[in-house]
Amino acid sequence: MKTRTQCLLLSVLLAALPAESLFAHEDTIIRLEGTQLIGLPQQYQPAELDVRAYRIRLRGHTKELSPWLKGLFDQPHKLEISASWYHDSSILPPYLLLRITPTGRNYSYEILVDMDAIRLIQAKKALRESDTVTTFIPIALSDFDISKAAPKAP
Predict the structure, then answer these.
(1) What mean pLDDT is reported for the chain?
(2) Which pLDDT score, from 0 to 100, does residue 106 have?
(3) Is residue 19 part of a domain?
(4) pLDDT-derived band of residue 4, with 50, 70 and 90 as boundaries?
(5) What is d(CA 98, CA 118) in angstroms, rounded to the nearest whole number?
């Protein structure tokens, strides 16, 4: 009888929680069509990533990418883009995530950009050691802006 009451209480508590608290946060996939970033809300439009001219544009503000970031786009690579603007911004500002995987390599670079300030939040190298193990290596940024010089890639 005690177990039945506990199960009922747990069911009532889970039903009372907002649906978003039951699921892990998931980024929205952003498509790159030409230079246009497709999938961002109106508040971040116009939105562009021009990997040939090495610049990013959000909300009408344009910044050139740093020489270090330019180097990642110069080699053959796969580019995946995602974003989040609907999470708790007290933890992390709305962001754009660029995942650059050099062709034929077992690692990728993950570049996290603040979409409001158009500044680099974080950069790291994701080293895929096996199908189940990935090691993340932070890239030191100090007071680094996406438009300034940056540290050498590890």
Answers:
(1) 81
(2) 94
(3) no
(4) low
(5) 13
